[in-house]
Amino acid sequence: MQLACAPRVDRAMDFRGQCAVVTGGESGIGKACALALGRTNAAVVLTWFHDEAAAGEVVREIEAAGGRALAHQADVAEEAAVEALFAAAEAAFGPVRLLVNSAGLNMTGTPIGDMPLAQFDRVVRADLYGPFLTCRRFVRALAAGEGGRIVNISSIHEHAPRPGGVEYDSAKGGLAQLTTTLALELAPRGIAVNGVAPGMILTAMNQAALDDPAELKRREAAIPWGRAGRPEEVAELVLFLLSEHAGYITGTTVTIDGALSLTVAAGA
After folding, report:
1. What pLDDT digit, counting tens, does each position of 226-258 carry?
2. Spacing of C-alpha 198 from chain mean position
3. Rounded to 5 degrees, what are φ and ψ at 200?
4. Is-catalytic flag, 129?
5. Could you give the count of Cα atoms lying within 13 Å of 51 in the half-sphere of its Cβ?
6. What is the pLDDT of residues 87-116, one digit of tens each?
7. Are 259 and 223 in contact (CB under 8 A)?
8. Helices 52-64 and 28-39, packing angle to 10 deg
9. Are 106 and 205 in contact (CB under 8 A)?
């Protein structure tokens, strides 16, 4: 008699009973991470800044699949807003054990000689101050021995600079150091801190390529893998880093870019 094999259940990817905060969850990589966490039974609190309707749709999609979710408006660069975010998450779902920092602003292509201080400050506050504030609040609420996991969404531009990106590249370079420093500091408490550095991902940050097939083809020609990435692919990596599968990984940033950042010397 032939016995049917039962499907393997990956308990390491079951976040049941855990509350996750995902910043920037209304769109792009943040949205993909929120949806992925919702499918793995985490209670998800996602932040939105501009588009309440889009954030509400993410919540409805998670709930339609049987999950629990809450959308909360927050400017993560503001200390009071971060405090209110975590207070709302804790009131709704209990202690926050998982944090994904995805909210952020893109580079403007402005040369440094033409860049107003306000523009530099705006991007650095969103892309670096924001993760600092959310990480600090996350850590303050965890009791000794509870443990937790943080994933900061960075960029290949944390180490691969681009002209016109002084504000963005500076913020992402700082985020890389925030990630490694916190990993050292928090390891004795069982709190893992890792980063993810995407290359070209088909989100609103690459809207020109989404709108114009010729522009997409031009940009993809520079990627050794031959195509741009999808936000869902980044989300799967984030899930892995949040899970028990990554139980011995902390203080590293994983690049996901189809080898784009390895082409620095191409043609030299």
Report:
1. 999 999 999 999 999 999 999 999 999 999 999
2. 10
3. -80, 110
4. no
5. 14
6. 999 999 999 999 999 999 999 999 999 999
7. yes
8. 20
9. yes
